[in-house]
Write a structure and sequence with these properties.
The chain has 148 residues and is an alpha+beta fold. The protein has helices at 5-13, 20-31, 38-48, 54-66, 112-129; strands spanning 36-37, 70-74, 80-84, 94-98, 104-107, 139-142. It has 2 domains: 1-88, Orthogonal Bundle (Arc Repressor Mutant, subunit A), CATH 1.10.10.10; 91-148, Dna Ligase, domain 1. It is built from 5 helices and 6 strands, in the order H-H-E-H-H-E-E-E-E-H-E. Helix 2 (20-31) crosses helix 3 (38-48) and helix 3 crosses helix 4.
Length: 148
């Protein structure tokens, strides 16, 4: 598998085999760091493996998401987008989404002030709602530099 041998071990440890469709889908992620839709993944896989159908892609993405190997995002455009998790804990990042052209920008160069604010917000929300927060996703919507 393209540069991701840790995924094979994670699948096996969870009782799953690394089937051809699973490997083909993971290879698409390894070659493309963008936030991909199921349809984009299907088209890429289908070029080399025409026997792999769209339903198989959806089932595989659901499995990989449940296992934490792939992250699933909803950016409000009517299509879920997917991103491969890293072999170490994925560097936490937020997203800026251009509502005009659809560009998605990963934002991870947080300032100390931002980190402090988010951590304090998590603590306050946890206390207020008696809820243990494990993770969060933040998406900012607006216009990218090209579309302004």
């Amino acid at each position: 598998m393209v540069g991701r041998p840790w995924l094979h071990g994670r699948l096996r440890n969870a009782g799953f085999r690394l089937t051809l469709p699973r490997q083909a889908i993971l290879n698409v992620f390894a070659r493309n760091p963008k936030h991909l839709s199921a349809e984009e993944i299907f088209l890429s896989v289908h070029r080399n493996y025409p026997g792999i159908g769209l339903a198989t892609v959806y089932r595989t993405l659901d499995l990989l998401t449940q296992m934490g190997l792939v992250f699933k995002f909803d950016f409000g455009d009517g299509r879920s987008r997917y991103e491969l998790a890293s072999e170490v804990i994925k560097e936490h990042h937020h997203h800026m989404v251009c509502t005009r052209c659809g560009q998605i920008i990963d934002y991870s160069d947080f300032m100390k002030k931002e980190i402090k604010f988010i951590k304090e917000l998590e603590v306050e929300l946890s206390k207020k709602h008696k809820f243990k927060i494990n993770s969060h996703q933040i998406h900012f919507y607006g216009s990218c530099n090209r579309c302004q």
